[in-house]
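Final report, results section. Input specification for complex C-07:
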Amino acid sequence: MRIAIVGAGALGLYYGARLQRAGNDVHYLLRSDYQVVKKNGLHVYSVEGDFFLENVQGYLTSEEIGEVDLVLVGLKTFANHRYNELIKPLLHEQTIILTLQNGLGNEEALAECFGPDRVLGGVAFLCSNRGEPGVIHHLGEGRIILGEYNSPETNRVEKIAKLFRESGVPCRAVADLKKARWEKLIWNIPFNGICALMLCPVDTLLRHPGSRGLVIDIMSEVIEAANAQGISEKIKHSLADDMVKFTEGLGSYKPSMLIDRQESRPLELQAIFQFPLTAAIRKGIRMPKVEELYNLLDLSENGFTV
Amino acid sequence: MRIAIVGAGALGLYYGARLQRAGNDVHYLLRSDYQVVKKNGLHVYSVEGDFFLENVQGYLTSEEIGEVDLVLVGLKTFANHRYNELIKPLLHEQTIILTLQNGLGNEEALAECFGPDRVLGGVAFLCSNRGEPGVIHHLGEGRIILGEYNSPETNRVEKIAKLFRESGVPCRAVADLKKARWEKLIWNIPFNGICALMLCPVDTLLRHPGSRGLVIDIMSEVIEAANAQGISEKIKHSLADDMVKFTEGLGSYKPSMLIDRQESRPLELQAIFQFPLTAAIRKGIRMPKVEELYNLLDLSENGFTV
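Structure output:
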């Protein structure tokens, strides 16, 4: 299977490397890493065992990659306005587009550009960071939950799930992708949000009783909102405690939004905050503490320039 | 009347200067300003007209001041554990103690140290900052609302109100001091809190639609809580809009908690956040957005040191 990785950051490079290592024909759209990766290959330092890919098929434009069977989208969501430019050259009649991006609204935006039928969504529960150019640190987790965006559950979802599993990535196809998206938001909203706002890693939050309580309160708000979205099975409030316990095992982990802020990149506020807040309000649910966090993050991003 | 100013910051120095200028015998407990003020006097740059006091009776200890008729307390509330040390040497049998400090809990703490009968409370609506040593900038407002802490409304409150009025400070004695305290909290909680957390002046908040909305939401929560405290008259929600409009006139004003944080002083979190949150919860009222702001401020102050 010919695969293109669009958005080759900590997530795209990690999954691309796993797929390539298992023998797939993987092509990476690169930017800052291009020179180093072409010359020196790609190093993955993983909790599941380090590995090194000597020959990496890297490109600077999608045109050079040409048509593929599967596009794996790992772009930061603030770059979604570039879908057409980056993805269109990769498509043939049957190309499947799988977004593993954060938050809500990505499948919808892809469907608008390329039609709904070729769009799949995946929720990646992955802790990874980039090191120096050509280096990925895989710090924990990695499983993916896959689903169709528009079509009824199809054979192709299971086929792609199998592709990941055969590459060493736990992967499960589900009928209710929305539930998985919201489950990830339960983690992403408090930890990405508070860590980015306060410029601290997750363990700093969890050590302080006030912010630990705030994390739980925010998770509860998101669980309420998720359960109003017509998902297949209600999410239990005990998931909040489980997630906090899991996160304690991550030590001084830096969520991606914190890294984005530290590296002066835009924040994924629309996908992780604005769309979920809107989806909640549509169902009559207010998330006051999420709203506040969003307002403060947006102030930090957009309020200081006139 | 022999008057001592304890806590001679932007507030204490301003009111002390007004009282002295009107002919009162004012004695200032000084610290960082001591040398400069003793040598060069005190400059007040005021929206109501600048003035200069050449001879300022400044001291480094309360013992040197000795007994007075009125103690005006302008200490930062995080220094309240020093009440005994700083105030006791100033007291004779009839000395009145008037706290003009921020937030809740100050009259109670003074009453615990010195008995409830000599305690008065005042709410100062004052915009002032310190400049270089020996310089006060009076940027707006200045009125004081005075009340008894424990005794029924007495003649002495009106006497002290008159003392302020004769010094050019609008001052009114009220039976319901609690209402005035909460009215000031409606301003203090959002503006002190968000400005200190985000390290920006008030106009930055009000220019950004998200944080402007957050200010209004927080004010609404505080108004709800205030109206549950058994105050003499309900506070209208329209006060929030009035306060925002008033604050727009202040330009790039820096609330005291922002200056405290910028100058690495402790924050007045107990008086301005913790006591009001507790008072609200006692009446069955939750203030989720105030809670969150408090948790984040407390994280910023106490969460980063292990």
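The two ends of chain B are 49 Å apart (CA to CA). Strands of chain B lie at 2-6, 25-29, 42-46, 51-53, 57-59, 68-73, 91-99, 119-130, 135-148, 171-173. This concludes the modelling results for the funded period.
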